[in-house]
Design a protein that fits this description.
Strand content: 15-25%
Number of helices: 4
Shape: elongated
Largest sheet: 3 strands, antiparallel
Helix content: 25-40%
Radius of gyration: 32 Å
Strand order of the largest sheet: 1-2-3
Oligomer: single chain
Distance between the termini: 73 Å
Length: 168
Amino acid sequence: MHFYYQPQYYQSPFNQIAYQPVIRNPLVQTSPRHQGTQYSSHSPHLAQYNAPSAQRQQTPQQQPSNGSRSPYPPVDSEMLYESAKESNKLMKEASMVLDRLASSREFGARLMTVAQSSNTQEVRRLIQSVGITSDVKIIYNPDGLELEFSSKVQNRDCCKLSISLRWR
């Protein structure tokens, strides 16, 4: 007695054609007593997938699509384009702050001193004195400084850039 395993495939919302089972020849029992008996009658899945292609039943989800029907809306890359442009701007502004901190020990010492005295407005003023125009969330503690640059496109958050610097 032989047992044949026929996997059951479920529909995927991503690609309806990719997850179709491989169609094999009908399974036939080889004993002389049951010559020509097909196992497809024992399982509806075997009956469906082992039947000749003319008899095979296809549900609407299994029928190949003509490419015009998609469960997703059409691609619009405008927001991605704008987000990438804004992210580029954020990176340039973050680079300006990092260049200033890397080139001026006095600037870094002044920033640490006002942060240690919990003067948040002065810390913000020093960071923005570098010439940045983006929104910056500034978090500091005894161990370091975190800057989170963010921007909006069409009044929607589009991108963020976080930098963590350690000073102790």
